[in-house]
Amino acid sequence: MIDMKIPEMAFVGICSCGKLVYAGMDGKGEKRERNKEVMELIRDGYKVDRISVEKVRQMEWCNCERKAIHRECHAAQHELWEIEQKLNADIKGEVK
Questions:
Q1: Which residues partner with 12 through β-bridges?
Q2: Could you give the C-alpha distances from 47 to 24, 28, 77, 91, in angstroms and in order?
């Protein structure tokens, strides 16, 4: 009988430099937490992929400077968008 081991998989976040910024096992549990982490990676502008753990072990980790304020910038942009929507409604006479 041939031993065909199914590779363990991981979700990874990849910087624009091509190196890892995140790696998380694709296990059965903690799906909600993993989904949250993947969404944060996407919001932060990283490429997200699902690859074998073996490949993860061969990859290098990113040393690029990361801006911790990215999420705050995103929140500020959303707040500005909401203000713009209210102003547009006011201009059209749709005061809410």
A1: 23, 49
A2: 14, 23, 21, 39
Q: Which residues contact 36 (CB under 8 A, 6 or more apart)?
A: none
State the pairing for strand pair 20-25/47-52. Answer: unpaired
Q: What is the pTM of this model?
A: 0.59
Q: Where are the alpha helices (DSSP H) in the chain?
A: 31-43, 53-58, 70-91
* pLDDT given for residue 69 in this prediction: 45
pLDDT over threshold 60, residue 46: yes
Closest CA to 21 of 54, 67, 75: 67
Cα–Cα distance measured from residue 26 to residue 12, given in angstroms and rounded to the nearest whole number: 10
